[in-house]
Amino acid sequence: MRTKNKKLGLLILTIFAEAYLIANIVGIQTNILYLNGNWESQKMLLAKGVIGSVSYFVTLPALAGNQLDLGAWNGYQEIVLKKKVSPIKIQFKFYLEQNTYLDFLYNGNDINFSGIRLSSSEKYPNISYDVDFSGKFISQSALTNTLLKANYWHSFQLIKAGQIYNISLDNRLLYEGNHYKDSQLLGFRGSAKHSYVDNITITQADNSVFFESFENNQVRIVIFTILIVVFMTAAYLGYILRRAHLTTGYSTSQFIRTHFIFIVCLIIFNLINMRLATWYPDNPDNINWYGFESNMDNKSTVLSTIHYAYSKEKLPNVNRILFLGTSQTWGAGASYESNTLVQQFSKKLSSQKNNHQEYQVINAGISGSTATELFDFYSKEWIFMHPNTVILNLSNNDTNYILFRQILDKFAHLNKTMGITTVFILEPNSVEVTNENLTKNHLIMQDIALKYTIPVVNMHEELSKYSNQGFLWWDSVHLTDYGQDQFAEILFKSMPW
């Protein structure tokens, strides 16, 4: 009798173990933000899309390890709860790599947020701030606490008391604030490097609790329950058939031994699966996009827009300015077309009081292009639109330095021959990321500029001065609305007129 009970216990344990491991595999493979359903990605709301925004939402790396990775898919991810909450207490765990930071966003509505930057980087110290829709800090104040320990899980807690609230970090008071909204949006924003958030607990005014572990537990529970029912039913039917001598299948002992091997295989597959979840798909065709589409204009769209929007003839009082560049120039990262750096620059020109001069600014930025491709379009078509000024914003996409130098020389020589003013912009990147290719191409641009006495705007250096004044970047290359506006302002003040 004891032997039978022992075998029965092992059988049940085997069934539960297999069901758990299989459910865990399914849980890992379906653990994406889109299916999670609680959060929305701010990058996906941009009218001028950036690379990786949809991928972050529909692939595994964002939630690999059952935690939110704000540095996955080119970093600077901004994730906000879909629904407003009325929190009286907020708790979560977070982890920072060396020299990185994350932002906790609260008090949010459709216009602005309050925020706390939590940092392990000296360049980006801990601060509290209010930020507007564009990403500009409306106000900010330094926090007295020293930099946070890197490669360590910290605990964060916000407690409301009336309209006043206290924020504690690792059980030490970090900040006291007021003007706390009863109903608000909450979210998180990352930097260039990896930072992680986990175990978010929000206690609301009605004592309801929202808990987020990013573990995909609902799927796991459903799959586990179904498998338990199926496996137990199958085991019971097998037992009935053997008792009726209708089958000569495995004995209970054979069943347990066979399935013990199966369990070991499942454990190994789980470990492999957890590792694979951190890998990035290298083929877009292998991604289930769930109906989402890219909102980045391709080459043909840009070319047709320019062709139909601008005639090759222009009036004598029209000063035509042509921007040439890649996705940054196109305006990737802008929330609306009107907020792109080219449109912002155009607005600043139009604000000048000059009744005898009309400015026409043309955006010929093509995502993924190189200087060679742009020169081909320019020399064969766009130059016949008779631009007065050509602004070249290049460096990121060109990896052949010899060819890059040759093409820039061709641009400069052709424009000098045609009497067209040329301006070079040293294409900016986030200074949180080291890019040797960018540095080498900037030097080449400066050499050519010196040869032809071309004005140079060191946008990379100038824009970095605003790193602590707001959110500049959506990734290491593409700018937020605030970043695009600062770009336009710097260029406007630097133009040679």
What does this structure look like?
- With 497 residues, the protein is of the alpha+beta class.
- It folds into three domains: 2-26 and 217-276, no CATH class; 69-212, Jelly Rolls; 299-494, SGNH hydrolase (Rossmann fold), CATH 3.40.50.
- It has helices at 2-29, 33-36, 53-58, 217-243, 252-276, 299-309, 327-330, 341-350, 371-380, 401-418, 436-452, 459-464, 481-494; strands spanning 39-41, 68-69, 78-81, 87-96, 101-108, 112-119, 127-132, 137-142, 153-161, 164-169, 172-177, 185-189, 195-204, 209-212, 318-325, 358-365, 389-394, 421-426, 456-457.
- The strands form three sheets. It has a seven-stranded antiparallel beta sheet. Strands 2, 4, 9, 10, 11, 13 and 14 form a seven-stranded antiparallel beta sheet that branches. A five-stranded parallel beta sheet has the order 16-15-17-18-19, with helices on both faces.
- A hairpin with a 2-residue loop joins strand 10 (164-169) and strand 11 (172-177).
- Helix 1 packs antiparallel against helix 4 (217-243) and helix 8 crosses helix 13 (481-494).
- The longest helix is centred in the first third of the chain and has 28 residues, at 2-29.
- 35% of the residues are buried.
- The model has no long low-confidence stretch (mean pLDDT 92).
